[in-house]
User: Which sequence fits this backbone?
């Protein structure tokens, strides 16, 4: 029986593989011309520093070996009871799994940090891209001597209507700080955090090693503003809340750890189809327990970051879980 | 002259551009464990000296880490080296060693 999978990120790929394994006929519909989703933009993965290809390539190879049909460069524009509407017409199916993922927070919305305005203010996604290109440097090509990371950019922030914690940015900040230490052994590196959330296995250990072995300094306080200073540097202001005094410093590079936001291009048709959204506009699963991969509609299911910020491992787990739920639903028809 | 009670206050901000961070770095080099502090405050909570004076061990060593040595030496003199803080530190930091090192390094400040 045919099942449409919306989105070909890790969640969509694994969902298709798991559905196929259960004897069903998945088809992946992906709006970009290649599969892989956000992972195509990452360099090494936390918490093990695994090169991204080691995760993505085997999944893509398996897809080819299993001959799973892929409709690339095709955007889903709506869901109906008997299939999905795409930019290339209707695709019929008995069930649909929405794996449309998340969007990266647009850092220009936090104007006070000067992203896109001042030189040498970049995002965590930009840094991944620089590392993939093999060159991390300031705008003038020189090496940074003082680097600051800011946690929670576009998360936990009423000002940009993002109440949730994006979950992966704390550990990404620790991972990238360690990577920057390797690129620039002589630099000073500071992470400005509000809370350090090291929820996963091996994360706390990574945090500790960032402190102890890599000399990363963690300062508790949110940078309130950044201002350009001559020479392409940036002056930042924060409170060192553990001391209770304001703090200022000039840095060569400011890296904003941007959060995960709901995939906004999909919210309109999802709403029209009768799918519910949570506070921060991620899709709301039926419930967060045994219904975590089900939606309010019996033939529509979810896997991955479409419902909330998640790691790759968690997205893959949901993909396997959703295949089981879809099979269960189709058997009952 | 009439004293109206006005004065010029010195800036309170911790200025990481002008503070001397080299001494802090030397302290870290000798006791890298200090960098793993998670500011839990267990040391301060259990501190014998902190129970009867304004001494806050966590805050003093955090100030030192930011290059704010001004009162650190004098503050550290309140410590009686009982070592209770070391018993409770979840990161296993040699806190008494921190006291000794700060006193040794900051005698001049
Ligand atoms: C800076 C950063 C670093 C990260 N690093 C790590 C890490 O090191 N380790 C880790 O475990 N996790 C990491 N993550 C999290 C990881 O990126 C996610 O867990 C993962 O990308 C989720 O996969 P997904 O398939 O749910 O979503 P996505 O990767 O967003 O894929 C969704 C796919 O759906 C497609 N799509 C969307 N809408 C439509 C539509 N209407 N029609 C057709 N196709 C559509 C998109 O084009 C995309 O290809 C990081 C996240 C960030 C922000
Ligand atoms: S994971 Fe950390 S940086 Fe990201 S939103 Fe949550 S607390 Fe902030
Ligand atoms: S050794 Fe000093 S700082 Fe530690 S508990 Fe005793 S008095 Fe307090
Ligand atoms: S007990 Fe240890 S970790 Fe906690 S504040 Fe004191 S030195 Fe830091």
Assistant:
């Amino acid at each position: 029986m045919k099942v449409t999978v919306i989105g070909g990120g890790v969640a969509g790929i694994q969902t298709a593989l798991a559905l196929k394994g259960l004897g069903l006929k998945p088809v992946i519909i992906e709006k970009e011309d290649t599969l892989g989703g956000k992972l195509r933009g990452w360099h090494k993965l936390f918490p093990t520093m695994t090169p991204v290809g080691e995760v993505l390539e085997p999944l893509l190879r398996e897809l080819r070996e299993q001959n799973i049909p892929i409709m690339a460069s095709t955007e889903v524009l709506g869901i109906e009871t008997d299939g999905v509407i795409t930019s290339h017409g209707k695709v019929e199916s008995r069930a649909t799994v929405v794996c449309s993922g998340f969007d990266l927070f647009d850092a220009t919305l936090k104007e006070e940090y000067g992203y896109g305005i001042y030189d040498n203010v970049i995002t965590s996604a930009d840094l991944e891209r620089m590392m993939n290109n093999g060159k991390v440097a300031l705008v003038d090509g020189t090496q940074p001597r003082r680097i600051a990371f800011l946690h929670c950019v576009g998360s936990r922030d009423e000002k940009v209507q993002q109440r949730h914690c994006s979950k992966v940015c704390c550990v990404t900040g620790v991972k990238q700080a360690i990577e920057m230490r390797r690129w620039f052994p002589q630099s000073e590196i500071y992470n400005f955090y509000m809370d350090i959330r090291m929820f996963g296995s091996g994360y706390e250990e990574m945090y500790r090693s960032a402190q102890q072995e890599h000399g990363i300094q963690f300062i508790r306080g949110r940078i309130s503003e950044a201002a350009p200073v001559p020479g392409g540097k940036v002056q930042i202001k924060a409170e060192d809340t553990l001391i209770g005094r304001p703090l200022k410093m000039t840095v060569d590079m400011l890296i904003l750890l941007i959060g995960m936001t709901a995939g906004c291009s999909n919210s309109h048709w999802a709403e029209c189809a009768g799918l519910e959204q949570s506070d921060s506009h991620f899709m709301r699963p039926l419930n967060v327990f045994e219904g975590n991969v089900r939606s309010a509609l019996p033939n529509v299911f979810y896997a991955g970051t479409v419902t909330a910020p998640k790691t790759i491992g968690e997205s893959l787990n949901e993909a396997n879980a959703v295949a089981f739920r879809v099979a269960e639903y189709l058997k009952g028809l | 002259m009439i004293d109206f009670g006005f004065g010029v206050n010195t800036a309170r901000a911790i200025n990481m551009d002008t503070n001397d961070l080299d001494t802090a770095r030397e302290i870290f080099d000798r006791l890298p464990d200090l960098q793993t502090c998670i500011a839990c405050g267990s040391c301060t909570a259990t501190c014998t000296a902190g129970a009867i004076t304004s001494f806050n061990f966590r805050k003093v060593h955090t100030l030192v880490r930011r290059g704010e040595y001004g009162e650190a030496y004098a503050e550290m003199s309140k410590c009686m080296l009982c070592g209770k803080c070391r018993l409770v530190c979840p990161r296993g930091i040699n806190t008494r060693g921190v006291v000794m090192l700060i006193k040794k390094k900051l005698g001049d400040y």
About this structure: Strands of chain B lie at 14-15.
